[in-house]
Amino acid sequence: MTAAINIRYLGLQEYEPLWRRMQSFTLQRNANTVDEIWVTEHPPVLTLGLNGKPEHILNAGKIPVIQVDRGGQVTYHGPGQLVIYTLLDLNRLGIGVRELISNIEQAIIATLALHKLKASSRADAPGVYIDGAKIAALGLRIKKGCSYHGLSLNLDMDLSPFLGINPCGYEGMDVCQLSDFKEKINFSLITDQLLTQLLANLGYTMPDSETGTRYDKLQTYNRHTR
After folding, report:
1. Which residues pair with 153 in a beta bridge?
2. Which residues belong to the active site?
């Protein structure tokens, strides 16, 4: 039996309208709705999780703050950060939330390994770290057995807004990005590498990567299940 997943390349998107689209997609889906992964970037924005504590926002400056319905505390999104939203039916995939988180973390770790970087996860703080500095954040919401929100991976961005928050609720946590370790960052290549790892972890097969930036495009990949 074959299941499918749609990958949407959305380019730079304002955070709140896209979040509302995720909510609407999840609320309207049924057992036959094809899963989707959305690839995007956001203009500068701080998002505070469902039970997030405002005191973790030390100095937002002119950056908008949006209270959202994912788990976790506060994080920053901005241009140069790869954001991937996972709109998945976990019941159909046969996995739980913890396994999904692990699949995402391991996909990021494997992608960074392709660039000769040793990264790891932490049991007490979801995300991915290099030498204790956070390079990727995770935040999910599960509704009707389906996930939305997802991950952000710092590639080549202005990290200074992280100084105005306690990242993910941890005071003094260091934050890093791929450009700290590599001189040239190919956003499209890293996107393909991460999607390849993530889809493989979820049981999908992705065709050979294309070159160039791919936006406003829908691609469908297949998942073979027993």
Report:
1. 82, 136
2. 168
